[in-house]
Amino acid sequence: MVSCVRMGAYSIGIDLGGTNLRAAAIDKDGQMLGKISGSTPVAEGPEPVVADMARSVEKLREQFGRAHLAGIGAGVPGNIDMAEGVIVGWGNMPIFNGYPMRDELSKRLDAKVILENDANAAALGEKWMGAGRGVDDLVLMTLGTGIGGGIIVGGRILHGHVGMAGELGHITISPNGNPCGCGNRGCLEKHASATAISAMARLLGLGHDLSAEQVYELAAKGNDRAREIFKVMGEALGIALADLINIFNFPLYLLGGGVVASWEFFAPAMLAEIERRSFTYRSTLKTAPTRIEAAQLGSNAGLYGAACLPLQDVRP
Amino acid sequence: MVSCVRMGAYSIGIDLGGTNLRAAAIDKDGQMLGKISGSTPVAEGPEPVVADMARSVEKLREQFGRAHLAGIGAGVPGNIDMAEGVIVGWGNMPIFNGYPMRDELSKRLDAKVILENDANAAALGEKWMGAGRGVDDLVLMTLGTGIGGGIIVGGRILHGHVGMAGELGHITISPNGNPCGCGNRGCLEKHASATAISAMARLLGLGHDLSAEQVYELAAKGNDRAREIFKVMGEALGIALADLINIFNFPLYLLGGGVVASWEFFAPAMLAEIERRSFTYRSTLKTAPTRIEAAQLGSNAGLYGAACLPLQDVRP
Question: Domain B135-295, what fold?
């Protein structure tokens, strides 16, 4: 089992989100020693944001000391060229595309930095200190505006050939389903993300600009159409999860992101679909049950995962 | 990279198929030193078949010597309890279910035996000496009566929680597609296996009992309906492969099994579907192209993989 271990050490994890950034110092046992937020909006582009990242790390490094700092990890959205440490494509923030984030940050800090995709970092964080403690293999699916994913195999992030593994939001759940910007039809994220929930609310005449949270509130008040939306969304999720269970036979599949708050309304349909569509799920129910659970670390998952990266690199 | 290495050694691989068994002595460089076939039909059940397996291994062991034998690996159909070495479920051969194949064979041979699922063994074989030489990560899909799969991560077989990983034939390619014995609808293997090809030939009035090979011969003669069948089959395959590419971002996806002989008729539709449905595939076309290829070892893949198992277990 590979885990985040190094005697007497802590590391600093950075989580660059769609709006701003956070950084935390976390020790080898997973205790969060300190956490700070950046002050520069991500929309200002790579140079000021990297300067802000460096400032945040500096503050934590001064506070907790250089001597015991095992390393620095950064989780950022988009596809990462793992070999070069470059952001290849960050969908709605093209200003970052092609930016050599790892080396720029490393130069400013005069220290090695490990760059990672944010969904992958979140999956590693959950494995280290969240719902995935005790397993070495898991899939994390993050349900937000879109759907992202991270896959942990043998305790480590599965990167694939060029770091693009885990695009779980683009699993086809219906070959002629809703069109997706990726060129496909029927992508999971067009049927089960917060955006998809809002779109269904519009189609059902519930409102033109309802957020997924507002649809949840309607469901909680007993609105049948809002409940139907979560049922349809849960079925879509169940199809994709059944695929993943049939492919991986992992012990644990985690759901993270804001939409998970609606668990009570989508989970029954999701689980029914999984049970119907995966004989692996059914045939192991009594002997080695597949766990489908909510992630536990919330918005801190990425921070834990980013901090785990340098600790993990030091093999015991 | 993990590979099959041990100085001066050979190993013996057994491939137990749906009708009978074969065994081969293969040296550490992948050279097949000798191959023999068993004489007992598999339908006779576990006891006589295991006796036959032991006889086959004995013959090879006498011929090539005990001194240099690194170990014995056996690939068998069905789900294997990897911890116990027991065949849990062999679909159309229930007489084997629950049989402690590994220990029974080991007892007869007075030697350690490694038991493995046959599709997993085939994937490892292709990685070692077939189309997968040079990569550490690949997916093998075997198109036969059903569709099986094996996944290689970091040079080793991905087993999952209880050895059931790689059930690629049960990926849902259409949520309301053809019914499957597994309880699901729209399983890949009900749309893209030899059995599915025969069923479509029947639906199109081409014949009541045409084999996939006969449908191929009609397609080769220019029969439009036969060609349409392979187009539809290729599209189904493309949907599942696009899913796998989006999930794994592996450098190589291999297709094995008898149906691959019809490559010229199904591959164009398959590749078009992959290109449309996977932006991972498209966006890496020029920089790190995803290879979709026919497996190279044919019916010997399982023998190579089974022989690789004990060699691989000895780390360099």
Answer: Nucleotidyltransferase; domain 5 (3.30.420)
